[in-house]
Write a structure and sequence with these properties.
The chain has helices at 4-18, 39-46, 143-146, 160-168, 174-179, 189-198, 212-231; strands at 23-28, 34-36, 51-57, 60-65, 69-73, 78-83, 93-99, 123-129, 135-139, 268-272, 275-279. It has 2 domains: 4-146, MutM-like, N-terminal (N-terminal domain of MutM-like DNA repair proteins); 160-279, Helicase, Ruva Protein, domain 3, CATH 1.10.8.50. With 286 residues, it is α+β, with helices and mostly antiparallel strands. The chain has 7 helices and 11 strands. It is 25% helix and 22% strand. The chain is elongated. The longest helix is centred in the C-terminal third of the chain and has 20 residues, at 212-231. It binds a DNA duplex (16 and 16 nucleotides) through residues 1, 3, 32, 59, 73-77, 92, 130-134, 170-173, 176, 179, 181, 188-189, 238-239, 273-276.
Length: 286
DNA sequence: CTGGCTCCCTGAATGC
DNA sequence: TGCATTCAGGGAGCCA
């Protein structure tokens, strides 16, 4: 399931391929995909928009367009890929954007100028999402979608001091707090379990009981885990395959019954905040 | 403020 | 073998 490192990987792959291209038209194959605006308005508005920048905020993929932002949340099973148009769909394709060739000029009916150039190598940007949880927004004011997100854990604002203040301003179980996108943006189930194990902290520990040293460990662990995830191009599990390798280096996630890489104790799976949670009962004592 | 629960949805795993 | 049931998971929304 795409978390910060997976979305970052997708963003880095797409960025050089998409920059400067213009969206010719949109085909919405499942209307529920479009969170905002209406499908009708979405289709009309996005045509003719040029892709100016590709980036990420939390787990959102962001395509900065001429006048709008296209925000994509992959949730569980979403994937975005550039595909050469062959007229065929894949199962679970939800949204298809027709693009000009790299550096190509817009040729939108009613907007573009000049005759259609059939030799142009056009592409399609496809949002494929098995479980239909993913959503897409097209907005002039992205803060309406992203405004409540917490800081980027790999950004400058995310310091050990900030984290200490944050966990002590609340009284919450550690894991649900780390998963709360309004607290920190980008952590999901995998990286939270991995970071807590690296920091030797129990997921049920109450946030405002953390010592200074524990907060520093947690801060370092979050950053180290996310950086390793990005370095390995994310984790490739479920139906989303990105060529990532991090799934082969999990310390605890999805490893119940197997030995802890640190101490050899058998890893246990429990449920915390309705989420499957994996810990080493020796390294992460409550 | 906090946590628990449900819902959305599909495919893999499990049960009979 | 085949059909039915269960479960996972990100985030919104609801309730206590």
């Amino acid at each position: 399931m795409p978390e910060l490192p997976e979305v970052e990987t997708i963003s880095r792959i797409l960025r050089p391929k998409l920059m400067g291209r213009t969206i010719l038209s949109a085909q919405v194959r499942w209307s529920g995909t479009i969170a905002f605006p209406s499908v009708r308005t979405f289709r009309r508005t996005i045509a003719g928009q040029q892709i100016r920048e590709v980036g990420r905020r939390g787990k959102f993929l962001r395509l900065q367009l001429s006048e709008y932002d296209l925000l994509i949340h992959l949730r569980m099973s979403g994937d975005v890929e550039l595909r050469e148009p062959n007229g065929r769909f894949k199962l679970h394709d939800r949204l298809i954007l027709r693009l000009t060739a790299r550096g190509g000029r817009a040729n939108v009916p009613g907007i573009g100028r000049g005759p259609r150039n059939r030799r142009e190598s056009k592409s399609t940007l496809v949002f494929n999402d098995t479980r239909k949880f993913g959503r897409v927004w097209l907005t002039r004011n992205m803060d309406e979608v992203l405004g409540r997100l917490g800081p980027e854990p790999l950004g400058r604002a995310f310091t050990a001091d900030w984290l200490y203040e944050g966990v002590h301003a609340r009284r919450r179980q550690l894991k649900p707090l780390l998963l709360d996108q309004a607290f920190i943006a980008g952590l999901g189930n995998i990286y939270t379990d991995e970071a807590l194990h690296l920091a030797k902290l129990h997921p049920l520990k109450i946030s405002n009981t953390l010592s200074r040293a524990q907060v520093v460990r947690l801060h370092d662990a979050i950053r180290a885990t996310l950086r390793e995830g990005i370095r390995r191009n994310g984790a490739s599990i479920d139906w989303v395959y990105r060529g990532g390798d991090f799934q082969n280096h999990f310390r605890v996630y999805d490893r119940a019954g197997q030995p802890c890489p640190v101490c050899g104790t058998t890893i246990v799976r429990l449920v915390v905040g309705q989420r499957g949670t994996h810990i080493c009962p020796h390294c992460q004592r409550g």
